[in-house]
Structure formats: C-alpha cells, structure tokens
Amino acid sequence: MSINEDVTVSHQQSSTAQLQLNFGGYSCAGKKSQNQDAFAAYTPNDNELSSKGVVAAIADGVSSASKAAEAAQIAVTQFIEQYYSTPATWSTQKSAAKVLTSLNQWLYSQTDNSTGQAQQWLTTFSAFIAKSSTGYLFHLGDTRISVFKNNLLETITNDHNRKQGATSAILTRALGADSRLQVDVHQVDIHVGDVYVLTCDGVHDFVSAKCIKQKLSRLTSQPSEQELEKVSKSIVQRAIANGSDDNVSCLLVFVKATPNRKAEEIERNLLSRRIPPALNVGHKLDGYKIVKVIHASTRSHLYLAEHEGETSPVVIKIPSQNFAQDAIYLQGFMREAWVGERINHCNVMRVKSDQKNSRFLYHVCEYIEGQTLTEWMFDNPKPNISEVREIVSQIVSALRTFQRLELVHRDLKPDNIMIDKYGSVKLIDYGTALIASLDENNETLTETVPQGSLNYIAPETLLELKANNISDLFSLGVICYEMLSGELPFKPMKTATITQTEYQQWQYRSIKQFRPDLPLWLDLSLMQCTQPDPKLRYQAFSELEVDLKKPNLTAVEEYKKQPILKRNPVKFWQGISLALFISLIISIAA
C-alpha cells in the first residue's frame, strides 16, 4: 500500500489570518544641507512573520556628531537586519535588546575618547515591532512614536531631553553616547485601523498634535502605501512651513489585519491535517518505505523508514488516530517539529517536519540506535557516580542549548532521554516545549493543565502553571536521583490529583536511605537541585555540574552544624515519638 497526496481530506483548510501592515513615509533635509535622519520598515516572509513580526524604525543623527548621518543609517538598517538574524525562538524583547546592545557598543567604540573629542557616532532611535496582535516599542532619544486610534492621537514614548529655554533642549540619551545602554520598552495591543506615527523632533516640535490628527483623520479606511506616503509628506511640509530648522521625517504604519483568531479557528486549522492510518512493513508514505514498526501506543506510532536517495534510515513519527480531534495535542506535535528544525546539537534528536506539500501530519526524525534511559536504569540498577555524572553532563549540554534559544523542555523524564550504542545522550520528544517567541503570540490554544510528567514536573509548574529553565533543572535532579537509587526524591504521586498547595509540603527523602554508600555531599547536591521552592534551587545548570564533579565540602560542614530538626525533621519527630512512647511505658510500669 502506498499513501500519497491524492487522498481526499475531510476537513476544509481555513484561511489563516495574518498580520498585515502598510507603510508610508517621507524624509528630507529641510533647511539643512544634509539629511541626518533615516527610517526603514520591513515585512518578512510567512515563516518569520509569526516568530519575528514586522519592524519599522526611525533614527535622527545628533547634529553635533561628525558621523550623525552614518550613525542614523546604520542604526535602522543594522537593527532590522540583525533582528531577523537572531534565533526564531527568542522573545522579541531579548532579540531587540541583544541587537541594540551590539549596535550601541559598535557606535560607542568608534569614538576616540583619548583625544578628548566629542562623540562622533550618535543617533536617537525608535523602533516599532508588530507581532501577532502585540506591538513592542524600543526607544531612546527624542524621536517619537505615537498612535492614532478612535480619532485620538496619543504619544507613547517619552522624549529623552532636557529643555533649555523655549527653543532648545539637550539630549540625555542616544545610541553610541555611553557604554551602558538604557532603552525604554513599551508593549501595546494593536488593532485593525490603528496608525502608528514615527517622527523626528524636527516634525513633532513644529507641528501640533491637533494638526497631525486632522491630517490622519483624512485617511481612508484602508489606506494604500501611496496614500500613507502622501500624508507623511504633508505632515513634513507643514513642519517646514511652521519654521522647522532641522531635518524632517515622518513614517506612518497602518494596521491592516491582525491574526486575532479565536480558539475555534485555530482548532479548525489544526484539524485540517490528516493523520495517516497505522502502517505496516512495506507501506509507503510520501516516498518513505516502512522497514520496521518500532513502537505503537495510544499517543503515537514510530516507524523505521528508508527513502530513495537517502543513505541513512530515519524514524517516521505519526500521531495516533486517538488524537485526531485533540487540537492541543496536535499543536504540540507540530511544535516538536518546529523546535527540532531549529536545534542543531549533538545531544538533541534532529527533527524535520513532513514533506512541505504533504497533506499528512508526521515528522521525520533522526534514527537513534540505542535505548531509553529507563531501560538503561533497569540494566544498571546501582551505577557509580562517574557513570551518572557523564550522562548528566550531556543532558546539561543539551539543556543549555534550549536555554540559549529561550526554550524550556518541560517534559524531562527517563523515557524522553535516549542513550545510543556509543554512549551519547539524546533528548527526544519536545512537543510540550515552551517557546518564548511563539508564547508571546495569541495563536496558541490555552493550556489549562501542567505540561510535563507526574513525579518529574517541577512544583511551580504544578502550583502556578509556570515553567522556566530552572524547572527543567528540577526535573534533571529527579532523574539523577533516580539513576543512582532507583527511587524518587519525594514520595511518588499516584494520581494526577494535586494535594500539595505550597512548597513546604514536598519533603525531600535523603538518597542515603536507599544508597547508604553514597557520600553526604552528593545527597546535599541533589537536595538543592530538587528544592521545591525555585528560589532555593540551583539557579544555573553549571552549579549542579560543578557540585557533581567537585564535592562542596563547605555545604557539608554547614549542614552538620544545623540542628537535627532542620537536617532531618522526619528522624527528629520519630525520635521524639519514641522517647514519649518509652516514657509512657515507664510511667505505666511504675
């Protein structure tokens, strides 16, 4: 049997609402001999639109700097170029902050401070990034971003200058002015029909808000870019007519459409993809020939497959038909491919989504010849510390990559960790991964239950539905504890019903109860790694790694100085109970 793209799909593909912006701007030197302003706007392709959004930026070179025009031009062009070069998984704020910091360092480094000369590369800067239904504003200097909506004009940014008299002002912030960068960040909801107005001080210092509002009020309900440019030019010309003695620039951004889809629309779109039926050896799916059925469960099916022209076998992962109507599960399945395509690390399983034109939902995964960590623990019930240390080190290496990409795995457990025949560790199954860039959007279905597996999930995720990289660290600590002892650091939960309501209700069980041969320093390290309260936990993966490699003897000494009630409250109260019992027996005997 061969499954191809000619199969009739029972669901109709709904049109996906996308963010659409129109731009129109105008800039000129005005009464000056050189135009030291710059602006730019960019709309990416569909792949980057969801993760990065649309960018508009304006800069006004500081006239006292000899490279003012160059600084402004570099600021807007390099900001946009470098912003889209940051990882697709990063949040908007992290991406913009990294780029602005880099730009500021470069501009600042161009000044020769040893000669006592004034700053040479200085510019104000304001950027508007529209992503999904949210606008992110980054601003320093006296360029300005305003919004025109409901026939009202509202200024969002604050001018960073200090007025001197009625006609002059001293700039207090600019790109390239200081090695330390201070940027104002705003986050706003964007709606269809909003007009964002980016201007330099040569415009807004000479044209009243009332006048700008009047000109914007004449825009049609769906203004073209030519119409926006015409209005921008009109605003600039009014500034010149009103006596502006500076460069004059105005950029208008009209919100034409936003992807404010309801949950039903998202669900309908997810359910439009067909899940292939269960496959057998010899069946074909889009050119992939099934060689072996690796695993079949109520959640997914894994097949070893070969493809003509490819030398290495691959694994085809297909959702179970049981989840054909479960939009949240299908969204996680698609998320796994999205993450897998963007991570390139030796300790993370490579994943790519299905053939681009396929109507079927499946992943093509790296084939790992080995066993799960669960199976490894069964074969190695009492491993030595060095063996566990090596596995943990490789897991940490993978999790650091997740952290750099602003990802949180959220489902670390032995079944989601593979060890190949060469001893190399691979993280698998990241369908529940938290992705910072996509989490900002409003295009995901609401998660009403904690993401993760019982007994490995961090307490803060259970109590508050929150997870970060420190949550992954907790899960890793539980796994490390289980590898060494075959037990869990806390009393196992039998059902998904959460009985704990506060962190104190998680009581750590010393690993020495199960492995008396293990040293105290290791027990203390695992106890800190699995602290229920995330504030008391290790705050970095490196802290666990260091303590596993080099015993923290200081922690051991401090622990020994603590009263027994704090060191081992269970043993303390057991002792008290025993003493009371003996006292009672003696009293009765007397």
Question: Any overview of this molecule?
Answer:
By secondary structure, the protein is an alpha+beta fold. It has 3 domains: 20-260, Phosphatase 2c, domain 1; 264-344, Phosphorylase Kinase, domain 1 (2-Layer Sandwich); 370-551, Orthogonal Bundle (Transferase(Phosphotransferase), domain 1), CATH 1.10.510.10. The chain has 18 helices and 24 strands. It has a 7-stranded mixed beta sheet with strand order 1-14-15-16-17-19-18, covered by helices on one side. A hairpin with a 2-residue loop joins strand 5 (123-131) and strand 6. It starts with a strand and ends with a helix. 38% of the residues are buried.
Poorly predicted segments: 4-16
The CATH architecture of the largest domain would be 4-Layer Sandwich
In CATH terms, what is the fold-level topology of the largest domain? Phosphatase 2c, domain 1
Shape: globular
Strand order of the largest sheet: 1-14-15-16-17-19-18
Q: Count of helices?
A: 18
Q: Write out the CATH superfamily name of the largest domain.
A: PPM-type phosphatase domain
CATH class of the largest domain: Alpha Beta
Give the mean pLDDT: 87
- For the termini, the CA-CA separation is 88 Å
Count the E strands: 24
What proportion strand?
A: 15-25%
What tags apply to this protein structure?
24 strands, Transferase(Phosphotransferase), domain 1, alpha+beta, five-stranded antiparallel sheet, Phosphatase 2c, domain 1, 590 residues
Question: How are the SSEs placed, and which strands pair?
Answer:
Layout: E1 2-3, E2 20-28, E3 37-42, H1 46-52, E4 54-61, H2 68-83, H3 92-109, E5 123-131, E6 134-140, E7 144-149, E8 152-155, E9 161-164, E10 168-171, E11 184-189, E12 195-199, H4 201-204, H5 209-217, H6 225-241, E13 248-257, H7 263-270, E14 284-285, E15 288-296, E16 300-307, E17 314-319, H8 327-340, E18 351-353, E19 363-366, E20 370-372, H9 373-379, H10 385-404, E21 407-408, E22 417-420, E23 425-427, E24 434-435, H11 436-439, H12 459-464, H13 469-485, H14 520-529, H15 541-549, H16 553-561, H17 564-567, H18 569-589
Parallel strand pairs: 1-14
Antiparallel strand pairs: 2-13, 3-4, 4-5, 5-6, 6-11, 7-8, 7-12, 9-10, 12-13, 14-15, 15-16, 16-17, 17-19, 18-19, 20-22, 21-24, 22-23
Helix pairs in contact: 2-3, 7-8, 10-13, 10-15
